[in-house]
Amino acid sequence: MQAMASLCFLTLALGAASAAAQDPAAGNAQGDLSVTIYNGGQSLVQDIRQISFPAGRTRQEFPDVSAQIRPQTVSFSAEGTAIVEQNFDYDLLSPNALMQKAVGETVTLLRINPATGAETRERAKVLAVNGGVVLEIGSRIEILRDDGLPVRVIFDKIPPNLRAKPTLSITVESKSTGTRPATLSYLTGGLGWAADYVSLYDEKAGTIDVQGWVTLTNTTGTTFDRARTLLVAGTPSAGNAASGGGGTYRPRSVAPGELRRAGTETAPREQLGDYYLYPLAERTTIANAQTKQVSFLDVAKVPAQKIYEYTVAGFNNMTEPQSAASVIKFSSSAQGGLGDALPAGTVRFYQRDLRGDPQFIGESRIGHTPMGSELGLKTGDAFDVKVKATVVSRERRSPSIWRSSMSYLLTNARPQPVTIDLVQRGLDWYWDDTRIITESRKSERLDSDGTRWRVTVPANGETTITATFETRY
Prior knowledge:
By secondary structure, this protein is mainly beta. Helix content is 4%, strand content 57%.
């Protein structure tokens, strides 16, 4: 809006009495804070404040609540009091909001003559703020605009429904006079956390060192001061569960996921229902518009193996060789693994160069991972390890039977042998049934849709795998 643009050139002044009534610089009014943060962007805030209650019905104000509070989730309790009504004032004090709320009110315009420095003051009634500020000054109508002349708009007071901070007001009925603790609880958006993992891979030793970091974010518009903070690894339902639908088609072939086998070990952490809890060791201040990191995992010399993987989606010719994926495999088990449940997050891998400096080699995301799981995380596409699939022949054996002969050329330009997991998918597309009739090397059937050859390719060499498939329609 043009009015909003014009306001950018105004200096707004307030009467001293009104400014004192709502001092934006006033200290944080929060009490003893506890914050529980879930992965899905929802959080529970519990705030215990010492409130002086007079007897009877009074209005109590709670500034410094989250600007993204869900008012319908507010819970209030204090001994000897009962809640009557609550209001959340989220219309925050700003130049734009002041001018919008001043429609119908009278303000003072202060202009300075740039040649003489003389000040002139005029009382003006704000008629409208629609594409520009329309003022009534005496018998004339004027549009407030940026014309290069210094202008200040002086407001007599702050409108009662404009707040310097997000404020929850509650009308309560108190049986007696006195100061006592009052507990305010509510759900809010704008707080979130995720896990980030820094992994140093030692290819020669076949190990990884892993540091786990909790990354907190706060976009609530409010700082939570010295809060006891509890992180919940899990996403409680928010009532928006997707409806399931029955489909007749199976999904097309995909590459292996990060979680190769789900673990069956219980992590040594507190649980809440089906969620794991990660309490921060000390109280922490979660500042608005801040990202904060706290360590929660530090494990060294975990056995790890690098392997190459390539998935062929169907029985088709490849026009040129494709890079195999470079994958690091490790476990989260107590014996020979990380020894913990892993909250969802991003794992970033580093490896030391010849000078001993750690260099970034790739990253991969994981979901919530139980302890005892086996993971295979892709770090990137291999430069020197390639795969090319070729259809050698395809013939129709009967009206309902086809035979496809495939050849897979695996090449390795590295100075040491490499292991490649070659996976052929598409053995069970839709309702088709595909079987292996012959193969040059025994494969391992993964499921109805895929089979895998684990192949060692010599240094600076190549290996060919052949197989014939029979498909029945």
